[in-house]
Amino acid sequence: MSKEKMTGAQALVKSLEHAGVDVMFGIPGGAILPAYDPIFDSPIRHILVRHEQGAGHAATGYAQASGRVGVCIATSGPGATNLVTPLADAQMDSVPMVAITGQVSSDAIGTDAFQEADIRGITMPITKHSFLVTDPSEIARAVAEAFHIASTGRPGAVLVDVAKDALQKLTDFDYPTKIDLKGYKPVYEAETSALRDAAALIAQSTSPVLYVGGGAIKSAAHKELLKLAELTGAPVVTTLMARGAFPDSHPSHLGMPGMHGTVAAVTALQKSDLLITLGARFDDRVTGKLSTFAPHAKVIHADIDPAEISKNKHADVALIGDLRLTIDALIPEIKAAFKKSQPDLTAWWNQLNSWRAKFPLGYDQPSDGSLSPQYVIERLGKISGPETIFAAGVGQHQMWASQFISYEHPRTWLNSGGLGTMGYAVPAAMGAKVGAPDKTVWAIDGDGCFQMTNQELVTCALNNIPIKIAIINNESLGMVRQWQTLFYNERFSNTDLHSKRIPDFAKLGEAMGCVGLSCERPEDVDATIEKAMSINDQPVVVDFRVHRDAMVWPMVAAGASNDDIVVARSLAPVWDSQEL
After folding, report:
1. Which of 64, 71, 343, 392 could be a cystine partner for 398, CB 3.0 to 4.6 Å?
2. Is residue 232 within 8 Å of 202, Cβ to Cβ?
3. 513-517, Cβ contacts within 8 angstroms, sequence gap of 24 or more
4. Which one is catalytic: 256, 259, 479, 555?
């Protein structure tokens, strides 16, 4: 490519254009200001957020909804440190994101200059890679490599920190057409011998489970997963990060496993003789007490990240590669193995169906006639429909949204799974709506989460991003209150938010350019949701004033064995040793 003379700032913006960026979320400031001048003339849409954390979560929501790399941009010092939480959040959930930050001039680095922070050093443990660029000639290559690293292999968050003088100096622009990084060679195709070993285990298993994680969505493996499930006849469980990777309506789906998973899903993993683990990482919220997790199961572990293999649970067979390609290659091997011997799963399914029938997901209506949060979320899913994108905050409402909405398609459920970031929902929904403008996007938020990042509703109102917010207002930090109820003798220390008095969320929404609605009676829920659904030219905030003492069930207490799953406040395990 012929070289062209320009400033480092122009090279940065032109590099983003070459990388295919169509939108980025950010706030200007001193160190990054030189880049904002060429942004003025760029076809890239820049959305001016109200807080850098909002920019980061919006980039994540955009990436999760669209499958493309999300981009955010901020200045040095506090601008950059405000991106730390969304960077850690994106990295934990394997979301492709590139953050561009300005840095003080190279001769001032290390002097405690105004608005200086070693953001490269700060973020090194929580990103896939971090760059510090002090030479303008290196800007184009750093950007190209950042997008390559963020979007290939196991996706993740990458930071590019650029010194102010590098943005101001002239350079020859030369965007690389090929990236070849020493030491970074993601493996995409699993070894044939391992595929055959996996197929042999599947052909011998009489109680297998397809344990599906977020990698199934990242690799767009949902169609192949459906074929695999129907070929093997095995039950499917989808983790919190995998909701929508397999249709909830499919008879083979047992629901979500883990701390607040269905009894059938949790128990199936415990009693399985083979875990066919697909793009999942044996997270502690799924395994419970690790030493007691799936004690009799052999493990097939398919993942693109070799570091995950046998990290928490020993893998008998490792399938390292892109999950979509892995499943596609595994299917003919299974068909060949089944020609020799195909197990009878009838007894296993009889057992699974008995657990499913005995312990279905459900909830009690409040005896005082007040509003059930589960009912609100269930109706929201039914009325809005399976094409809707839902972004949840963190806490009880997140778990209810994962339980009581039926997910039929990938990229329709967005949440902060690994880091568990309160305040994620509103900016993530904003990013999702930008990434999928033709979709209805609901943020399901708690009154605690909402008060952390609701300022981005101003961004939505001013930029024609008509998201809808359902605030599940139980005037509490609900999940913490649940734990205080169960484990701290109802000593509710600092969990009462008084959110049904201050603020008035409907009026707050109106003050920020949104339509504000409220609902506190069960008979008004459907009409309120339908009213919100009818408004598509501005954001909508709905304050659902719900019963404060509803709890999330089932539950496996932190550190407990999955065998001790409970479904009621008594905390009596649903199984005794004889039943299991």
Report:
1. 392
2. yes
3. 513/457, 513/458, 513/460, 513/461, 513/462, 513/538, 513/539, 514/457, 514/460, 514/461, 514/469, 514/538, 514/539, 514/540, 514/541, 515/539, 515/540, 515/541, 516/540, 516/541, 516/543, 517/541, 517/542, 517/543
4. 479
Burial class (CB in 10 A: 0-12, 13-18, 19+), 489: exposed
Structure-token pair, residue 484? 């205080």
Instruction: Name the active-site residue from 14, 128, 164, 468.
Output: 164
92 carries an active-site annotation: no
pLDDT value of position 125: 98
Q: Does 115 qualify as catalytic in the annotation? A: yes
Q: Is 52 a catalytic residue?
A: yes
**DSSP 8-state assignment for residue 365:** P
Residue 308 φ/ψ, nearest 5 degrees? -80, -20
pLDDT in tens, 382-430: 999 999 999 999 999 999 999 999 999 999 999 999 999 999 999 999 9
Q: Mind listing the pLDDT tens digit for each residue in 133-149? A: 999 999 999 999 999 99
484 an active-site residue? no
Q: Is 114 a catalytic residue?
A: yes
Pairing of strands 4-7, 274-278: unpaired
52-65: b or e for each residue (b if 16 or more CB lie within 10 Å)?
bbbbbbbbbbbbbb
Residue 447, both tokens: 């009154």
Residues 470/405, Cβ–Cβ less than 8 Å: no
- 237-269, pLDDT tens digit by residue? 999 999 999 999 999 999 999 999 999 999 999
> Quick one: tokens of 233?
């006849």
Specify the pTM.
Answer: 0.97
Q: How far apart are alpha carbons 243 and 237 in whole angstroms? A: 9
The full set of domains in the chain, from first to last, is 4-173 (3.40.50.970), 192-358 (3.40.50.1220), 373-545 (3.40.50.970)
Tell me which of 10, 14, 52, 256 is the catalytic residue: 52
Q: Are 394 and 418 in contact (CB under 8 A)?
A: no
| Catalytic, out of 6, 115, 455, 500 | 115
Q: Which residues contact 479 (CB under 8 A, 6 or more apart)?
A: 394, 395, 396, 399, 552
Q: How many helices (H) and strands (E) does the chain have?
A: 23, 20
In what helix (H) or strand (E) does residue 33 lie, and over which residues does it extend?
A: helix 33-39
**Close Cβ partners of 8 (under 8 Å, ≥ 6 residues apart):** 34, 136, 139, 162, 166, 167, 168, 169, 170, 171
